[in-house]
Every structure is written in structure tokens, then in C-alpha cells.
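> forwarded from #structure-qc
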């Protein structure tokens, strides 16, 4: 294994300590991914420097010029407080001719634009829920061609921001109420989709040209009753006490019909390529009782904590955490960015 000089990019509030001893689980959760990556890379023998970024690209430029890293390990999830602006940091890395881990700027932009990605997937005849976009700061117009129940979420925000049990609506008044809530609370456009009832499946993908898919992973809603057992709210995804109370967890998808794993893996590779993604991603799907599969979202640069879905599904395929990080860096080093092609 080649020893590298690795610059790890994190948000300025998520710079991890050198040692996690003495911190509570709740405190560690805030910077668990950053700590896992930093400490594992150092244990593997790499020379690691962590850069906490706020809103100034000059800090990144100076770190590259002064320390001369061989690759940047990108763990940013936003820039200047805007979720979609981290793609510009990656574009800046390309301008600096600096290899980086994770998705390229084009793939980040397309996959995170939920409406644009749906349009592209529809063009490629990849199943996704019927939808309507209700822009913020425009006169409300009820979508007439969609069948209730409907699911309402932000068109740009991720990590389940703005998603709760009230996100599923069954009539016109509740639809308008929820759309206005999304406009006000997330300050973004609202995306309204036909709600697809079924199993929530996650598939992790690794690669640039040649793609590897890891075993199908499923979100188990535990003891949550009725309609509650179908929505990945913020509490379902991130509230540790809530998860323990209701037995919510993720793990290998069980009792799948014969051939499902191969069929879904093939579909996920089509999605990944259609959205111009690279590095690694997690594709979120909904599987109906009849076995049909619909795309929910495509997540570039998903959470890399050792205990999260990407790493645990890789481990189920006999790819340990150190090997996973090494593969991600190799993909970043070999990605054919425009500056390499020139």
C-alpha cells in the first residue's frame, strides 16, 4: 500500500479531536465520520492533515500550496452554509489540479438537483415516482395529475431535513399546508411526489468506470406503527434514543425474490452512470410488494462512518474499513478529470 500525504477536508465545526476518549456518544456523533476517516488513515500509515473549512477558499489554496498533499479526502457536506455549494469546492480542486475523493462536480450538481435527476432518469426509462415542483415565492397551484397520497419534501435539502410524518398528505388542504411549511422552514422549492409504499432499500456503489455494488441494505422501521413505518424522518435516521426505543436499524435486505439482487444492482449501475457520478454513492430505492423498484434519491459522497450503511454494507462484501478508504483514494487518484485529459 502506498503511503500518501492526505489533506482531509471537513466543515470548520467538525474538526475531530486527536483522541475520542472522554466524549459522550452524542458528542462523538457530531464528528464521528471525520474522526473515523482521520484516525483510520493515520493508523494505515498515511500522513494526514485535517483542514476545517468555513467560507474561504484561500485556506484550501494555501494548504495545498504549503503542504503539497497528494490527495484531498473530501468530507464536506456544505460550503458557506449552502448544501449545494460543496460542489464548487470540488471544482476548485480540479482548477488546482488536485486529486480528490468522491464525486465529481457535475455528478454532484445533477444528483442533488432532485428535479433534474428525475428528468434524466425518466429519459433513461428508470422508474421514479411521478412528481411536481412547486417553487417558492410563486403563487400556489395544486398539482392536478398526481394521485394521493403524496409525499412533500425540499427539492434541494438532504439528510431528511423537513421530513416528518406530516410529509405524507392525503388531501388538498394538507398538501397546501405542507408545501407552505417546506417553503418557510427550508427556504427552498417543494417537491411533491406520489407516495410509494414498500420497503426502503439502500445500495452502495463504488467506482468510476468499472462499478462495484455492495449487498442490498434495508431500513428496518422496527416497532413504528402504520404509516410511520415508511418514512425516513430525521428522528428515524439520526436520533439514537428514538432508534433504540423502536428497534430501528439497517442491515442486509432479507427474503428477497430470486434474482432481485442482480436486477437491482444492474439498475443502480444505470442510475449512477446516467447521473454522471464517480467515486462512491448510495442509491435510495423503494421496493413495492410486487417487487417493482423506484428510485428515491441518489446520494453522492454518503456518510463514511464505520457504523453507517456504506461501510457496513461494504463489510458484508468482505471489504473492511481500511480497504474501503484505500479504494476510495485510489479512485480519486485515477479519476480522469479534465485537467488530466488536457
Amino acid at each position: 500500500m502506498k503511503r500518501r500525504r492526505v489533506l482531509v477536508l471537513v466543515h470548520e465545526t467538525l474538526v475531530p479531536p486527536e483522541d475520542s476518549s472522554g466524549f459522550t456518544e452524542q458528542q462523538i456523533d457530531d464528528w464521528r465520520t471525520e474522526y473515523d476517516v482521520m484516525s483510520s488513515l493515520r493508523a494505515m500509515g498515511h500522513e494526514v492533515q485535517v483542514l476545517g473549512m468555513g467560507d474561504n477558499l484561500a485556506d484550501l489554496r494555501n494548504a495545498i500550496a504549503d503542504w503539497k498533499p497528494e490527495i484531498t479526502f473530501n468530507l464536506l457536506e456544505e460550503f458557506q452554509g449552502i448544501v449545494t455549494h460543496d460542489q464548487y469546492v470540488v471544482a476548485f480542486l480540479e482548477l488546482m489540479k488536485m486529486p480528490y475523493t468522491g464525486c465529481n462536480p457535475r455528478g454532484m450538481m445533477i444528483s442533488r438537483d432532485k428535479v433534474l435527476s428525475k428528468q434524466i432518469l425518466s429519459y433513461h426509462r428508470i422508474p421514479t415516482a411521478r412528481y411536481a415542483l412547486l417553487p417558492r415565492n410563486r403563487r400556489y397551484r395544486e398539482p392536478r395529475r398526481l394521485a394521493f397520497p403524496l409525499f412533500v419534501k425540499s427539492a434541494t435539502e438532504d439528510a431528511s431535513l423537513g421530513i416528518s410524518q406530516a410529509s405524507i398528505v392525503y388531501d388538498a388542504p394538507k398538501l397546501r399546508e405542507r408545501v407552505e411549511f417546506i417553503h418557510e422552514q427550508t427556504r427552498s422549492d417543494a417537491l411533491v411526489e406520489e407516495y410509494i409504499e414498500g420497503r426502503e432499500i439502500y445500495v452502495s456503489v463504488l467506482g468510476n468506470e468499472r462499478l462495484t455494488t455492495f449487498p442490498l441494505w434495508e431500513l428496518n422501521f422496527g416497532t413504528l406503527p402504520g404509516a410511520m413505518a415508511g418514512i425516513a424522518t430525521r428522528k428515524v435516521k439520526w436520533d439514537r434514543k428514538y432508534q433504540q426505543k423502536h428497534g430501528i436499524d439497517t442491515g442486509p435486505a432479507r427474503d428477497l425474490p430470486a434474482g432481485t439482487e442482480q436486477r437491482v444492482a444492474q439498475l443502480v449501475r444505470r442510475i449512477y452512470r446516467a447521473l454522471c457520478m464517480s467515486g462512491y454513492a448510495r442509491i435510495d430505492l423503494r421496493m413495492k410488494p410486487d417487487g417493482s423498484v423506484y428510485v428515491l434519491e441518489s446520494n453522492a459522497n454518503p456518510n463514511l462512518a464505520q457504523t453507517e450503511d456504506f461501510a457496513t454494507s461494504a463489510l458484508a462484501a468482505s471489504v473492511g474499513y481500511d480497504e474501503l478508504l484505500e479504494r476510495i483514494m485510489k479512485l480519486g487518484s485515477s479519476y480522469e478529470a479534465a485537467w488530466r485529459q488536457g
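QC bot note: The chain has a mean pLDDT of 92. Residues 175 and 252 are 34 Å apart (CA to CA).
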